[in-house]
Amino acid sequence: MKKIIIAACLLWVSALSFAQSGTNSPYSQLGLGLLSDQSTGFNRAMSGLGYGFHEHNQVNVKNPASYSALDSLTFILDAAVGLQVTNFNENGNKKNAKNADIEYAVAAFRLARRLGLSFGVLPYSNIGYNYSNTANVNAFQSTQSVNATYTNVYNGDGGVHEVFLGMGWAPVRRLSFGFNAGYLWGDVNRSVVNAYSDSYVNTLSKYYKTRIKGYRLNFGAQYTQPIGKKDEVTLGVVYEPGHKTSSDPECLIISSNSQTAVNDTATFSIKKGISLPDAFGAGLMWSHSGQLKLGFDYRLEKWGSISTPELVMNNGTTAFQLVSGEMKDRSRYTFGGEYCHGERSMRFVNRVHYRAGFSYSPSYQRINGQDGPKEMTASIGFGIPIMNNYNNRSMLNVTGQWIQRSATNFIKENTFMVTIGLTFNERWFEKFKVQ
User: Fold this and answer.
1) CB contact at 8 A, 220 and 67
2) I need a labelling partner for 178 at 20 to 30 A (CA). Which of 138, 201, 257, 397 fits?
3) Going by C-beta distance under 8 Å and a sequence separation of 6 or more, which residues neighbour residue 413?
4) What pLDDT band is residue 44 in, cutting at 50, 70 and 90?
5) Is the dihedral of CA 71, 161, 28, 63 positive or negative?
């Protein structure tokens, strides 16, 4: 029990250490930002595949029903960091940006026969951008026309994270059920500062802030059917109910003039103005001799039914209100697999896990009435066993990912990301006898 408490404290320290901005993408200024795949090291190497996987030595948060397959007597602690470089390309103008982030920290162990428990901290979304645009404008003072320029500076930071507790139970052989119960928290900060080169023209600044807080539930099930002596197929399904959170978005508008030193301020807010969508997922995994595993996942998130807080200016009046049609339903298609010749082999090469995957997902965001960026991800990774006199069950998960986001007439992003995670797996609950 003391070791479990220590592990829980380590996970909490990781939660407090999570960076609030793991991206530099301008696309993160829409909705809740760039949504995280919410997967651990072995899932990421397969581009997030996991609904049909039930590993005995890995924490598969994609489907909580998988916790029932965890090894007895062991405690698993899995944490990772990510390093990424992103290239932005807009009309031939290119720029690079670098980021580093704590990706996740999760743990799991078996409570009883066919009953597993997991807990940890995962990212839900990321926000981080800073850019500006400048243009000419004709400003008028008295009867003379004055040439002036204006600059809009767009800035945003923050993100949403989730701390969760989950259980998976197999009431009968081959069939399991599970759930994750989580709490979301984080700050979403955005601003648009408008300034003019002519001091007689008012500067208009808009600041948006939301402190995210709310619960999140995720239910899952898995069923495995043998199709021969060496082959079996697992069907996995997940469901996440949508609901309103306890988040109250705010908008602060400041109109100022440096010449007259006059500032006008208006503050708006919306009670419970942030909602989460219903989400559904299903996946198939085919396993041959427990060595080769291939799978396909599909996920649908009903963002199109969610209204978003927007500042609306019409006929001289200003209102901060919920507006529909600013987001759309999001689908995600993922294919991948892994191969391991024999994880109990005495040869190091035979115990390495080789993984790869590909996913495609249109955006849930809309930009000026146009669809947001489509996202494609290709990944490759390795599960490298740790073999020494003290530990032969733990694993180093190394993943390389290429992520491309692009939308017609908008910026194109190419991100190259390396995730390094350690899955610590030891027999913490084993009792030894002395003869």
Assistant:
1) no
2) 397
3) 25, 27, 86, 87, 88, 89, 373, 403, 404, 405, 406
4) very high
5) positive
